[in-house]
Write a structure and sequence with these properties.
The structure is a single chain. This protein has three domains: 181 residues, Beta Polymerase, domain 2; 185 residues, Rossmann fold, CATH 3.40.50.720; 86 residues, no CATH class. About 8% of the residues have low confidence. By secondary structure, it is an alpha/beta fold. The chain contains 18 helices and ten strands. The relative contact order is 0.11.
Amino acid sequence: MTELSVIGLNHDTAPVAVRGEVALGPDLVRRLLRRLHAEDAFEEALVLDTCNRTEVYFVARRTDDPVAYFLGHVERLKGKPAAAEPPLFYRYDGLEAAEHLFRVAASLDSQVIGEHQILGQVKAAYRLAVEAHTARFLLNRLLHWAFRVGKRVQTETDLGRGAASVAQAAVERARRELGTLEGRTVLLVGAGKNARSAARILRASGAGRLVIANRTLDHARRVARDLARPPAKKFTLSEVEGEAGDASCPALKQSGDEANAPPAADRTPPLQIVGLDALPRLIAEVDLVVASTGSPDAVLDYDALAEPIRRAARDLVILDIAVPRDADPRLARLPGVRLITLDDLAHVVEENLERRRAEIPRAERIVAEETRAFGRWMSSLQVAPTIRLLQKRLDQVREDLLRQHGSRFSDADRDQLAQFTESLCKRILHDPLVFLRGLAQDAPLSDTLAAADLVRRLFDLDALEEGE
């Protein structure tokens, strides 16, 4: 009998350049699923495509090499060879495939352990598979089970508590200092990875006007393009940080139906791009400065900025997350200025990471427990034990009726009644048993499991099995 499998590559098995060659994005995932539905290689299929992984969960009908089959589709969809060698892919079958998905949903397989974004990405992947009609009985049950695993880990452990990156910690600190980020004007100085991450988190957290200042305007424009499409909903900071840690990831910016939603100008905070020479003019207009340029010299110069800050006479939070430092330390002496450096944040990040690492065993136990439960459920839907329990259920009903009404008959009549009811039960069971055995031999796995599940629920066979 065919079984559940997963093939994929992730941040542990393939470098980012290779992952980018295989990554599809929502539109291509839709097209791929439609093609898989039209063909007959897979009975069921779901594609999980994020910044750090591309995986296909499937029940194969006829393919000896699912990796080559998948890569062939990727090449046709993208119109170019996929620079990914089959050895970079992993494959798990049966219960190991289910356990892998549970670990993914629990964020135990993420680059940032404990991040919550992945569970939303798994749900988005499931929606696409449902829309394409490639998620049937087995994947439907598996994915809902995975959602439960992810939710249990989130609620029963501290695996995802606290900022796990400098950018995330910086924005959390800014929110504490300012009370709220809603509608705040933010000056982003620099266009590197940390700056992009901070900008993405700030935008998703409700910050208002965003000014991007950089020595090279083209780099600033690239960040602005990354932020041009607003998120369809607001996330918690831990959700926004996600697997990617990089704002350039298209799978993070767009997922599910959100990818096709037109930008809504009325809810998109304005973006402005300026050179570093504009800092003295703009510093008086902002509530928060996030600096991360990598410049060898202080970009936020005391002599240039002190007087505009004094004249503004307003509170200003400066988050300096650059190495070496971007902000002149003397700025902290100015009234209303709160200067927060990388040293102030690094220990918070490390403490949070240590706390998450300590929670891994608890999360692993939840995954192991749910994997065993899923395995028991899969085993219960095998045809042979279902048939045995169905026969036992009808024997139980027959014996109960004989005990209840047997006293009304003579001994000879009771023997005949027993033979008659036994023959009747066999006649009633004949066609259902032929049907179930035929499914086990010839039908798709999903159909077989769905039929067995229906029979078990119709005759309450799970309760009968528990009483054995």
